Structure formats: C-alpha cells, structure tokens
C-alpha cells in the first residue's frame, strides 16, 4: 500500500491542476444536488418488531387517519388576546379548519366540535394533527402551508407554538458562530504546532472542502431515505475533527522530508507512503467502528453512522488527493508567514524527559491513572436510557414552549398520551345502537370529548354519526361495534384507570372488532415514572385483562411508548455492538502488530476512556452537575442511542492515537531491543503530534455543545471528554507506564524471539534534533 500511496501522491503533484478542477466540480455538483434535491431531516417513522409498531398496524384497519405522524399545535394567550374571548375563539376555529383542509393532514382535533377532541381552557387551545403517510413524505412546501394555516390566530394576537413532528422538522439542524469558534481554536493549535500561518491553514482548508461535499450528499440522501436530524451534526463534528487531524499528520511528515533535503514531489510521495498509510488505517478503523452501529437493529442509528462514516471517508480521500496537490502547488513556501517566537520543534526533548520519568515511576503512575479513570466512570453505573421528548428540549425551542404550556394548563402527561389498541378475532353480532345524538362527555379539568388517539375523552362506544357531516379523517362511528370488543374495551378501561400513575383513561372508541383507548399519564414524557408505567401496563395490567378474552390482542402504543421501545431495543443490542466492534478491532491490532498483549491492553485502555466519558456525561446531564453551563435547565436522562453511538466513535478515535503511538514504539523496539527506551523515544517522537491532534478534536467537538438539541450536546461533550482523557491520562501516563512494567512481554508472539540489541541500545540513541519533526509512518 505504501508504494501505491507514494505513486498517488506524486501523481497529484504533477497533475495538481486537474485535481483542483475535479474537486471544484465535485463540490459544485454535490452542493447543487443538495440544495436543489435535498430532503428534510426527520425522525424514524416505524420501529419494526416493537409493541408500538404492532399497535399502529392493528389501528390501521379501522382508524387509518390516526396512524400517521402526529403534530401538536398550541394556541396560547398573550397580553393582547385570549382564546377565552369568543371573538378570538372564532379565529382559532378558523385556523383549525384551515389545518384540517390541508392535503397533508389526515385528521385534526377540534375542541369546538363535540366528539372531535382537543383541549381548551381560558388561556390555551391544544389540538393534535395526524399527517398522511410517513415523516419522510413531508416536504418544505407542506410545512410552509402548515405554518400559514394558523395565521388567523396570530393575526388575532395569539402565540402559536408547534410541538411533535412539525416542530422537529421546522427546526432543521443548522450551524452557527460556535462552530466557527471551534475552527478558529483549531487554527490556533495548528499555528502552535507548525509556527506558520500558511501551514496551519492547509488542514482547515482541506477539511472544509471535504465537509462541504459530505454535508451536501447527506442532505441529498435525506430526499430518498429518512435521515435523522442528528446525522448532519454528528457527521460535521467527526468529519471536521478527523479531516484536520489527518491533514496535520501528512503536512508534518512533508515538512520533515523537505527538511531532510527532498524535492517537493519526493517529499509529498514519501509523506504519503508513511503518514498516508497511517491515515488510511486510522480512517478505516473509525469507519469500521461506526458501521458497527448497523448491528443495533435501528435503521436511523445505522444511517447516522453511515453519514458519519461518509464524512470520515471523504476526509481520507481529501487528505490523499487534494492535500498532495495543495502541497505540490505551495512547494517550499509552506513555511512562509511564520509566527514570531514560536519554535514548536523544541518539545521532543521535554516529552522524552517525561517518558523517562514515567518509566522510572511506572507503578505509581499506573495505579493513580487507573484509579482516576475508574473514579470518572462511577456515574456510569447509574446511567439510565431516556427518551427524546419535547419536554427536555431547549427552553428556546418552540416544541419545549408548547410542552410547557400544555403542562401548565392541563398537566404534564396530557402532552403525550398513550394509546391502547385492542382487537378481537372473527365476527360476532354487533352491539345494539345507542341514541342518535352524540353525548358531550367531560374529562378532568373540564376537557371535552375526542375521537382520535391524541385527545382526552372519547365519545360513547355506541355513538352514531351526528346529523352534520363528520370532518375529514374522523372515525366512522356508524360501523357497528363488535360486542366482544365493547366488553374488552370496558374491561381495559376499568383495569387501567386504577393503575397508579394514570391520570385519566378515556372511554373506548370502538369500530368493528377494534377498540381504541387513550391513557393520560400523570408524569412528563421523559421522567422515569412514565417509562415504568409503560412497562407495568404492558407487563402485568394488560395481560391480566387478556386472560379472560381468548384470541384477543392488545397493544400499547403512542409517541412516548414508541421512544421507550427504541430505548429498550438499543439497550438489548448494546452488548452485541460492543462485542463486535471490540472483537474486530482486536483482530486488526493483532494483525498489525503481531502481538497478543498489546491489542488486549489497547482495548482495555479504550474501554476505560469510554467509561470515563460516559461517567462525565451521566454526571452532567442525568445528575445535573453544572448542567446550566451547557444551556439545559433541568436534569435529563441520557438519550437511548447516545451511549451506543459514543462507544463506536470513541473506540475508533482512540484506536487512531493508539496506533500512532504503538507503531513508533514498536519500530524503536525492533531497532534497539530495549522495551524501556523504545517507550521513551516513542513518546518523544509522537506526543506533540498526538496532543495537537487531540486538542483540535476537543475544540471542534466542544464547539457543538451550544447546539440546542440535547442529543447533540451529550455527544459533543462526551466525545470531547473522551479525546481529552485518551490523549492525556491514557496515552501519556497509563500506556507508557504499563508498557514499561510489562517490558518484553508487550511484544510476545508465539515462536518469535526477542530482537537483538543494536547500536542504539548501546548508547547511540537518536538525538532530540532527529526527533524534532518526526512523524510515525
């Protein structure tokens, strides 16, 4: 591979104009494709094999309008107007009618019509809207019409907030000045590493070019498949950080080759042969680790991983093609515009002194470093998978404001009710029809009836169609209910209403053999009590009713149970992903280093750094330690897929630094046969580079912490902490200490003898000057 990369580097230098033109065409083409054909970033619309999906599939037969994505619309009073004023109420009713008339809307609640659901008080009106199709079918034009439909209420002086799927789609991921700050800090690190403005700017330029292509392709992919809103943010975090690091490695080696007297083309070729080889291996390790997310069984998690892997892959491609062309164009001018009084190459001697200090005090450093990592990992023992709900969004987001209004006016559980869907087999004589008129039923806090799965009170199970035409999407109550469905529905209502934690259970809505019952929990969507309630209903209460109804099926669904199903699925697959990623990484390291102890030690060190990062994220977000500093106003559980995704990313990135360090140590060990001095020289040759690369990663990741999405905040903080811990406590303390303690055993391999001491082992070790610009190959 080294020879192939060297030829590629030389070719890019000679044909650099063609390389520049090709990259410009690719960036323009991808940019136009993403801008013109780009889709919306959306949540996953189905969870195959889960209880929630079975509930949706059962509901689809008799309640087809109730199975699409759900949006919440909140009309709220201001100092100028209130829905309690009948004149203002007329404008709210008009806005609801306009929403109902939209082509994309399957059904919209309306608290001003008996039996059409919704919630109203003097200060707020809340309705839920079911959309047609899936979340991937919603376009930007649909959302504009959705927003325009509520304009009469805004004109009357009301505030209108969107929650649920519409709010999520209206708040598409976007960058901000904080990402620019991260790049500027990375530029500062590069300045200190190179001492030259021109050399420092090259890695930034290369990574931004690669990221422009990656983001455009991810945006285009969103038009064909469902891509989660977190995907572009995670891809940008990882892609920019990795791209700058990979360019840093190659540029450092190129400057070394120039200092050794090579011409420009030869210097680029040799830099590619050595550092380019390391970049390919490092990038491949990260891509493989991320692709392990497909084993989670959740398609949107796999797609986030694929988007991130695409970004890293394009960064590797940019480092192997665009970067050599830029270096060839600059030639020997790369060190122009130097930073005054900065001599970055004087650090090798200091790092070698540190390596000898750790070698002499290996036991204390190994013990203390391990204890520190274990202490940071302690909060992980209490880590609890949570749900992605509007109740934990940033207070600045519309979805959070919608939740706060509903919680204040009606109760926290009313924002995301559960839906029980029961179905009896076969056919039986229908129940006797009731009176013609539709009754007006009252729920808690004076809330009026509903027919959909998102309201609070339902009409009588035997209610007939009123004299006026039913609005679009309303269930056809003229379809006579099956007697067994009526009995089962009433039995479920009675049983569930007595369960602690249930605020209200609606009357069953029954069409044919299907019964639908709404359940309002007493607690907010994201709290542990709500999750426990879902598990209790599914585990004991509903099966207890089914025992007396042979052949019937009952499923508990709804938005909140769906997210709980996601968390449970991720938890069940976590071990599979961990074993697969660690197992294959171990195999790759065994092949790369032909050693057994070193790969095992590397995997254990990575697991310790991952545990430490999990612990910090848990302490901050779940325990609430300093959480206000991160723009969150309350302690929240850890998003279910965050630990899974963090594991894959951190393991891949940690392996990068491990490979860079161990490759240099192994090279020196094979040359000198001295297990102690090889560690010292390895630290001296690579510590500055690894520290600079880590600082760049930390600044890039940390720049995403101010993003309003709590999921992005958690991942950004976790990745920044993991890289910081890995590059300091692990690589500069624990790894050299353990390698000094193990000595020759580090490199044991069946049937291989120890290398014979060379002249270097007899006192002719490399000088600090020889290590100044050295980069591992």
From TrEMBL:
Residues 204-329 form the SSD domain. This is MMPL family transporter. SUPFAM superfamilies: Multidrug efflux transporter AcrB transmembrane domain. InterPro entries: MMPL_dom, Mycobact_MmpL, SSD. Keywords: Cell membrane, Membrane, Transmembrane, Transmembrane helix. It is found in: Cell membrane. The chain crosses the membrane at residues 20-42, 180-198, 205-225, 231-251, 278-301, 307-331, 362-387, 574-597, 604-623, 635-657, 678-702, 714-734. It is a multi-pass membrane protein. Its main location: membrane. Residues 429-439 have a biased composition (Basic and acidic residues). The keyword DNA damage does not apply. Residues 429-481 are annotated as: Disordered.
């Amino acid at each position: 591979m080294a020879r192939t990369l060297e030829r590629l580097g030389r070719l890019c230098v000679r044909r650099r104009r063609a390389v520049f033109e090709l990259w410009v065409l690719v960036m323009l083409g991808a940019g136009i494709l993403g801008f013109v054909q780009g889709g919306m970033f959306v949540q996953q619309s189905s969870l195959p094999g889960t209880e929630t999906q079975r509930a949706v599939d059962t509901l689809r037969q008799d309640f087809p309008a109730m199975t699409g994505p759900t949006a919440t619309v909140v009309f709220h009073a201001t100092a100028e107007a209130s829905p309690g004023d009948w004149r203002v109420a007329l404008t709210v009713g008009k806005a609801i009618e306009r929403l109902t008339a939209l082509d994309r809307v399957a059904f919209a609640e309306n608290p001003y019509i008996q039996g059409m659901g919704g919630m109203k008080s003097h200060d707020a009106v809340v309705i839920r809207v079911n959309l047609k199709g899936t979340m991937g079918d919603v376009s930007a034009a649909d959302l504009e019409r959705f927003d325009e439909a509520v304009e009469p209420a805004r004109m009357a002086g009301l505030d209108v907030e969107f929650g649920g799927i519409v709010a999520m789609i209206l708040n598409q991921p976007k960058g901000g000045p904080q990402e620019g700050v991260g790049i500027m800090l990375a530029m500062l690190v590069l300045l200190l590493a190179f001492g030259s403005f021109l050399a420092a700017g090259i890695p930034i330029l290369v990574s931004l070019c690669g990221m422009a292509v990656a983001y455009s392709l991810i945006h285009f992919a969103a038009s064909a498949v469902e891509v989660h809103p977190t995907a572009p943010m995670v891809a940008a975090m990882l892609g920019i950080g990795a791209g700058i690091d990979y360019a840093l490695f190659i540029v450092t080696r190129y400057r070394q080759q120039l200092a050794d007297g090579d011409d420009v083309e030869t210097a680029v070729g040799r830099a590619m042969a050595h550092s380019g080889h390391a970049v390919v291996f490092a990038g491949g390790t990260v891509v493989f680790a991320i692709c392990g997310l497909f084993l989670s069984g959740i398609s949107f998690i796999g797609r986030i991983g694929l988007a991130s892997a695409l970004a890293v892959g394009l960064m590797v491609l940019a480092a192997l093609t665009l970067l050599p062309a830029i270096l060839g164009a600059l030639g020997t001018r790369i060190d122009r515009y130097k930073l005054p009084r900065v001599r970055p190459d004087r650090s090798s001697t200091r790092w070698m002194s540190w390596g000898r200090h750790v070698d002499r005090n290996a036991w204390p450093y190994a013990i203390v470093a391990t204890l520190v990592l274990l202490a940071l990992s302690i909060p992980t023992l209490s880590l609890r998978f949570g749900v992605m709900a509007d109740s934990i969004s940033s207070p600045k987001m519309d979805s959070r404001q919608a939740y706060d209004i509903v919680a204040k006016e009606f109760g926290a559980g009313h924002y995301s009710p559960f839906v029980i869907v029961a179905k009896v087999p076969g056919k039986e004589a229908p129940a006797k029809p009731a009176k013609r008129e539709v009754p007006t039923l009252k729920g808690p806090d004076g809330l009026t009836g509903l027919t959909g799965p998102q309201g609070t009170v339902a009409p009588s199970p035997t209610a007939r169609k009123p004299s006026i035409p039913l609005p679009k999407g309303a269930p056809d109550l003229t379809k006579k209910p099956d007697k067994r469905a009526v009995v089962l529905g009433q039995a479920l209502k009675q049983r569930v209403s007595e369960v602690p934690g249930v605020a209200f259970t609606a009357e069953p809505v029954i069409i044919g053999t299907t019964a639908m019952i709404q359940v309002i929990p007493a607690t907010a969507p994201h709290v542990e009590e709500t999750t426990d309630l879902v598990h209790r209903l599914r585990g004991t209460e509903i099966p207890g009713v089914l025992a007396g109804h042979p052949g019937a099926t009952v499923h508990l669904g709804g938005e909140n149970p769906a997210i709980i199903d996601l968390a449970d699925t991720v938890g069940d697959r976590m071990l599979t992903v961990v074993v697969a990623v660690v197992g294959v990484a171990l195999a790759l390291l065994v092949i790369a280093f032909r050693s057994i102890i070193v790969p095992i030690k590397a995997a254990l060190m990575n697991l310790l750094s991952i545990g430490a990062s999990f612990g910090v994220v848990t302490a901050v977000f779940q325990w609430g330690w300093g959480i206000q500093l991160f723009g969150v106003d309350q302690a929240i559980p850890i998003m279910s897929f965050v630990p899974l995704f963090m594991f894959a990313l951190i393991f891949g990135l940690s392996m990068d630094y491990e490979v860079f360090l161990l490759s240099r140590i192994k090279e020196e060990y094979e040359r000198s046969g001295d297990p102690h001095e090889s560690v010292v020289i390895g630290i001296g040759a690579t510590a500055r580079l690894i520290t600079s690369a880590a600082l760049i990663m930390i600044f890039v990741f940390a720049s995403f912490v101010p993003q309003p999405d709590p999921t992005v905040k958690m991942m950004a903080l976790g990745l920044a902490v993991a890289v910081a811990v890995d590059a300091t406590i692990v690589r500069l303390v624990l790894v050299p200490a353990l390698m000094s303690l193990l000595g020759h055993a580090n490199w044991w391999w069946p049937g291989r003898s120890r290398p014979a001491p060379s002249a270097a082992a007899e006192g002719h070790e490399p000088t600090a000057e020889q290590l100044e610009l050295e980069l591992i190959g």
